[in-house]
């Protein structure tokens, strides 16, 4: 997995370097609709917009899902679901019941906010896509997974202190750290393409 991540990251870096050189060459040849990343305009654009390009909803989604995966992984929920019913002790059975009840309650609340007539998460025309619901779909899923993982972890006994919950969520971010690197390289490469060939986008 590390080799794959490293290969993708290296490919994106090489692609960015090639794009920079190609933009300079095509601009020097006065190709219409091409801007150079090495020009004063390109340097100002890159430095002035780097943070705004990276700070996109996709970054928030990646962060939330990483936390959710970390919580699920450390809560013991997946192990509990794989354990045969006959081998579960009383505490595990109770934790599973609490988790199932919480899932049903959470799903009911989400459905009430998104599907009921005149629901608050519907668009002005009453549709689901696009709507506030579709914009918040990933955070809704991530928050649901976080809720279930915390409840299950507390019920089983994995999370006896708030620091345990924080540690579990942080572990998910640590595991997803290589994806953040790929995200930053990929989003900047895409934005650089739109700058260089602005007439095509």
Radius of gyration: 23 Å
Percentage of residues in DSSP E strands: under 5%
Instruction: Tell me roughly what share of residues is in helical segments.
Output: over 70%
The average pLDDT score comes to 89
Number of helices: 9
Description:
The protein is mainly alpha-helical. It is 75% helix and 0% strand. It contains nine helices and no strands. α2 packs antiparallel against α9 (177-196). The model has no long low-confidence stretch (mean pLDDT 89).
Short description:
This protein is 75% helix and 0% strand. It is an all-alpha fold. Helix 2 (40-54) runs antiparallel to helix 9.
Core attributes:
mainly alpha, 9 helices, 201 residues
Q: How are the secondary structure elements laid out?
A:
Blueprint: H1 2-28, H2 40-54, H3 57-75, H4 77-82, H5 90-114, H6 132-135, H7 137-156, H8 162-175, H9 177-196
């Amino acid at each position: 997995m590390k080799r794959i991540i490293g290969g993708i990251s290296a490919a994106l870096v090489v692609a960015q370097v090639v794009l920079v050189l190609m933009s300079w060459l095509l601009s020097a040849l006065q190709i219409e609709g091409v801007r150079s990343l090495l020009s004063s305009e390109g340097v100002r654009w890159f430095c002035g917009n780097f943070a705004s390009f990276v700070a996109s909803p996709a970054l928030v989604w990646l962060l939330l899902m990483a936390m959710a995966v970390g919580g699920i992984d450390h809560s013991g929920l997946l192990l509990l679901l794989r354990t045969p019913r006959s081998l579960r002790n009383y505490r595990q059975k109770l934790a599973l019941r609490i988790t199932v009840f919480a899932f049903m309650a959470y799903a009911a609340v989400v459905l009430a906010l998104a599907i009921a007539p005149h629901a608050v998460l519907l668009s002005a025309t009453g549709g689901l896509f696009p709507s506030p619901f579709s914009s918040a779909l990933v955070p809704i899923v991530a928050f649901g997974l976080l809720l279930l993982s915390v409840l299950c972890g507390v019920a089983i006994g994995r999370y006896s202190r708030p620091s345990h919950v924080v540690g579990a969520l942080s572990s998910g971010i640590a595991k997803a750290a290589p994806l953040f690197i790929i995200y930053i390289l990929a989003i900047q490469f895409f934005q650089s393409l739109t700058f260089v060939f602005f007439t095509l986008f």
